[in-house]
Amino acid sequence: MIRVLVAEDQSAVRAGLVLILGSAPDIEVAGEAADGEQAVALARELRPDLVLMDVQMPRLDGVSATRIVVGEGLADVLVLTTFDLDEYVFGALRAGAAGFLLKNTEAKDLIAAVRTVAGGEGIVAPAVTRRLIAEFAAKPVREPAADPAVLRDLTRREREVLSCLGEGLSNAAVAARLDMAEATVKTHVSRLLGKLGLRSRVQAAVLAQELGI
Question: Which of 35, 71, 151, 157 is the 20 to 30 Å CA partner of 213?
């Protein structure tokens, strides 16, 4: 079972999310939080597999709560919001969120996203991914937010995998692109995350975009 903590300040929306997740045979709603501080406290207490986190909540916003939950290794975080603005996307992903979905996501896609993140792969809503790529494509000469020197410890193969992550490819897609086993891709992803000091493959994707690799 995938144990999920639902953090959403609007009670009606939270109830709907709980209902959707509870309809999946392999997902259990371990708890509910109405604000960011409660989300962090319950994550520490319940140790769920995943926190479904609203980005805008009282007392402690979702980005700050995500940073704490991920930083303490309490759970993976899948951010859910009505906003697809870049500052929310980058704030959540840099805080260590493993995924980012919009609240108008279909129920089946939400369940699929929870399973994907619980399985160790990140996910970003297609509409958001398009905006991210457009953002970087429109500013090819902008100063990178990251130092390219961070890549010096990566092997050639790890750089190739990182580049694929920057395109938002899944492990299966990376395996097909680079002609390697999916298990080998997972190993490369794990190693490059460790070398780069990153918490999630989505953070790696943001880094790849920033460095233009």
Answer: 71
In this structure, are residues 6 and 52 in contact, taking their beta carbons and an 8 Å threshold?
yes
| pLDDT (tens digit per residue) in 19-63 | 999 999 999 999 999 999 999 999 999 999 999 999 888 899 988
CB 182 within 8 A of CB 175: yes
Q: In which element (H, E) is residue 69 found? A: helix 62-71
Query: Is the whole-model pTM more than 0.85?
Result: no
Looking up tokens 């279909």 gives: 106
Would you say how long the chain is, in residues?
Answer: 213
Neighbouring C-beta atoms of residue 190, cutoff 10 Å? 12
First to last CA, the chain: 37
- Cα 65 to Cα 96: distance, rounded to the nearest angstrom: 10
- Rounded to whole angstroms, the Cα distance separating 43 from 49 reads 9
Q: Encode pLDDT of 153-177 as tens digits.
A: 899 999 999 998 888 788 888 999 9
Q: Please give the single-letter amino acid code of residue 107.
A: A
